[in-house]
Structures are given as C-alpha cells and as structure tokens.
Amino acid sequence: MFREKKILVGITGSIAAYKSILLVRELVKAGAEVKVIMTPAARDFVTPLTLSTLSGRPVLSGLANDDAWANHVMLGRWADIFIIAPLSCNTLAKMAHGQCDNLLLAVYLSATCPVAVAPAMDEDMWHHPSTRSNLEILAKQGVQLLPVGNGALASGLSGEGRMAEPAEILGFLQAHLGKTQSLLGKRALITAGPTHEPLDPVRFIGNRSSGKMGIAIANELAARGAAVSLVLGPVSGHFKLDPKVEKIPVETAEQMFEACIQRFGTADIAVMSAAVADYTPAQPAAEKIKKNDGAFLLELSKTKDILATLGEMKREGQVLVGFALETTNEKSYALQKLEKKRADIIVLNSLNDAGAGFGHDTNKVTIFEKGGEELVYGQKTKQQVAVDIVDRIEKMCTA
Ligand code: CTP
Known about the structure:
Layout: E1 6-11, H1 17-29, E2 33-38, H2 48-55, H3 72-78, E3 81-87, H4 89-96, H5 103-110, E4 115-119, H6 123-127, H7 129-140, E5 144-145, E6 149-152, E7 158-162, H8 166-178, E8 187-192, E9 197-198, E10 204-205, H9 212-223, E11 227-232, E12 246-249, H10 253-264, E13 269-272, E14 279-281, E15 300-302, H11 306-313, E16 319-326, H12 330-340, E17 345-350, E18 362-363, E19 365-369, E20 374-376, E21 380-381, H13 382-397
Helix pairs in contact: 1-2, 1-8, 3-5, 4-7, 9-13, 10-11
Cytidine-5'-triphosphate is lined by residues 191, 253, 272, 274, 276, 278, 303, 305-307, 322-325, 337.
C-alpha cells in the first residue's frame, strides 16, 4: 500500500503517543520507509528504542547528535509527507508562531513536503480560543488537519480532543499519497503572480497578485505526479513550492507569453492563473524619467493574451484552464471568457465575495466548464481550492 513512500512521523508530548507506535508499525508493514522525529517531551510518553526498533532506523530528536548536525532541511525534502501525530497544544502553538527550539519544529519550518497533523488534547484545551486561532494559522500555512475524535480523554473526562485512530491516519495517508499516481506521465504548465511592465529602469506598472493561488495549483498537480513548469511573475513573500516543480521566473507579460508558447506544445494541462498586464508602456525609457512641471502622459500598448493564444493553439486532449476576476455580471463575463479564449475551464473569483481574490489566503470560486457544468464552492483555503480545481482538471484529463 505504501511501497516506495517516504513518511516522516513526528511525535510530540501527549499520552496519545502510544497510538503512534501502532501507526509506525502499520506503515512499515505496508511497505513505507519511515523516519521518526520526537520532541523532548514525547520521550516521557514513549521510548525511542521502541520506535527505532519498529521503524528500523534511529529515532531523530536533537538538532545535533554528539558528532553530527541533524540535517532538518534534507528531512523535509526526503519525505513524501510529514505527519505529526499526536500534535500537542504546545507544539501547535510553536508551529503557528514560527518557534524553532527542537528538531521537529526546525523540520516543520523548512519542510517542502506536505504536512498533516493529528491533534490530541483535552476538550477544554481543544476549544480554547488560542487553540482555535493557532489551528487557523496552521490551515493558512497549508497544513492539513485530521479531525479529532470524541470519547474518553486522559483527564478521565469524555469529549472532543482524542487523536485520530491509527487506522484513520493510515486511511488519510493512503488517500493523500495515492493521489501522487493519478497524474503521473502528464505535463502541466502554470502561470502565476503579477507581471511588471517597465516604464523606465526603476519604475514599472504592476498589480497586487500574490501568486498564491497558482503556486497552490502547481503544488497540487505535482503532488499528483504531474511534471509541472511554473512560469512565475515577480512575487514577494515566502511561499512553499514543491521542489519537483520547475520554476521559470519572468518579469513582463511578453516574457510570460514567450515562456508559455515555448512549453505549451508538450503540455497536457495549462492553467493560466497569472494576473497578466493587459497593457504595457509603449516606449519604456532607457534612462530614468525626470519629473517636470507639466502632467505626464503615458502611452500604453496592448499585451498579447496568453490564454487566448494557447486556446488557438490547443489540440485534442489538452486541458486549458483560465481565471476570471470580476466585479459585475460575473457569470456572463466568465462564460464569455470560456468561449472567447477557447478554454475548457474558467475559474471565477468574484471580488464581491469577502475572502476571495488577491492577497488573501482564502478564496471562493465558481468553476464553469466547456460542457456546461457550473460548480459553486464555499470559502476555502487556497490549498483546498487548488484541490477542487485539480480534481476537475483530472476528471477532464482522464475522461
Ligand atoms: N490572461 C492572459 N494573458 C493576458 C491577459 C489575461 O493569459 N494578457 C489570462 C489570465 O491569466 C486569466 C484570464 O486570461 O486566466 C482572464 O484574464 P482577465 O484579465 O480577467 O480577462 P481579460 O480577458 O483581460 O478581460 P477583462 O480585463 O476585460 O476582464
């Protein structure tokens, strides 16, 4: 079931750690390569000896051993997924706020693989506002949260907060890692972020796109096994990109166009999520433009529409996805774009929806498909929206 899968299991200080012993045993039995990382507090609940015996590898817990530095960066790159089970309230808070005082936290902060957590705590802690807001922060950071169970708790009370059972965690891991095969052999081309159109050597016309939606789609496609090329405009801020994704940094709409035209021929899937400038300064100045007393008039010329050009080039079997960001007549504009640009799918963001569009970590979309389907989704994290979009792409690819 898990043959050739590399799974990093993080264990934190909670009585539920006894269930992780079973989890590690079942993963190894199912063919996974397992490495275990324990926080210092976890060692009060289960022994490294038990876990190293079951996993067949030394348990990792210190940032340094006697003679060697533990390479936390490579651990997060080695793994197909990092599952932290149980996740204690303390480690949850540290993860949410970027603290890094043990190996498990250092691996979390540098992990490029997907991260999932199975929290375990007493019911009152589970419902505490700090816990709620820390869980929200983790979700925004792209961490997948396994639901807690309801039942007998270590305190002797009964309620919500039990760690998911090993069988449930195995089921989650199987569903998640099973995905990696579904787009194997497919090539995907994604655009994301804004473009910067130069006025002179120091100024440009740009927009507020963060690139987060397109990056999440690139990661989701890569997680399902596609070979992904991401043509990325100038984005700022930290983002996690699957190391398997080929990143092609560009600045201008023209560079983005060229990068896409070169690659579209071999692509099975193309997702144009970039906020490409529609106009560019007709004659960018070679030297810095100096101010004077009068008004400044700027002549702009039209850029090439990448999505529409790919729509014209499209051959049988290629799936082409575009985005529409609208403020009025959303549905009719989205349907017009679907037809005019010969796309197979248009993902509509309405700027009238709170929590949708540029800069946010969440999005709310409606998907329109060539066959007439219209799918309305609720507000979700951009990672979850990426899963919905890629589900539809996958359905079309394999139809
Ligand atoms: N797009 C593109 N190349 C451009 C402009 C847009 O590939 N030069 C793509 C975007 O990546 C997006 C889709 O076209 O997938 C919709 O872009 P949008 O700017 O909303 O639509 P426009 O066609 O520019 O129409 P309008 O600005 O009138 O809404």
